[in-house]
Design a protein that fits this description.
The chain has 211 residues and is an alpha/beta fold. The protein has one domain: Rossmann fold (3-Layer(aba) Sandwich). Helices cover 39% and strands 18% of the residues. The protein has 6 helices and 7 strands; from the N terminus they run βαβαβαβαββααβ.
Length: 211
């Protein structure tokens, strides 16, 4: 499949969602020569922990995507207020249509339709509308998913999982979260690898696969 994929778009409701959801796969796709774009819809100024600057998450995003190998010019940042995405569905859809017209992605990663976070739900629903002619893989965030259909997998090597872990280390503001550590990153990748008989993997809910 990777040989047919040339342009990839990551839809991240908030900074770090893309890294948590598919950081290892991003590293692998870049290694294989894919052109990867990352679109974050909020830098979450309202949620920055006490003691950090208001724009800290934006800086962390740039550091993390650089760690994964995404060029700075391929990182698109929007500034919707966190937890208020449902009020801006049409604007968000238009942003997606605009980037679709610009880069024509072959493969789009986004949250699952069953994600319980309201912002993630909007990005998933509007993403499926906007990219109906692209391959769509939805990444898991197990703290937001009551259940997920693991119908697609990317096999990963240790170096890909390590890249994901290193990228997440750039988010000093998120270190307090019990899933923001290398142990969790490797354990989930190991679990998904067991499902398909390899050492490590990331799992996805496949919405559309075009051969």
């Amino acid at each position: 499949m990777i040989k047919k994929i040339k342009k990839v778009l990551i839809l991240a409701p908030h900074t770090d969602d893309g890294e948590f959801g598919c950081g290892g796969t991003i590293a692998k796709l870049i290694e294989e020569g894919c052109e990867v774009y990352y679109m974050a819809f909020s830098v979450c100024e309202q949620s920055v922990p006490y003691g950090f600057k208001e724009d800290e998450l934006e800086r962390e995003l740039m550091n993390a995507t650089r760690e994964l190998g995404i060029p700075e010019s391929n990182v698109i940042i929007k500034r919707y207020e966190v937890r208020r995405f449902p009020e801006h569905r049409q604007e968000i859809l238009q942003d997606m249509i605009d980037i679709r017209s610009k880069i024509h992605p072959d493969l789009v990663f986004m949250p699952t339709p069953g994600d319980i976070h309201q912002d993630h739900q909007v990005i998933s629903a509007e993403g499926i509308r906007a990219f109906k002619h692209s391959n769509i893989f939805c990444y898991e965030m197990i703290w937001n998913n009551i259940s997920i259909t693991t119908s697609g997998f990317f096999k990963l090597d240790t170096r890909h999982v390590q890249k994901k872990a290193d990228a997440l280390k750039c988010y000093k503001t998120q270190e307090f979260r019990n899933y923001a550590n290398s142990e969790f990153v490797f354990s989930l990748a190991k679990t998904r690898g067991v499902q398909i008989g390899c050492e490590y993997a990331e799992a996805f809910q496949v919405i559309r696969f075009i051969s």
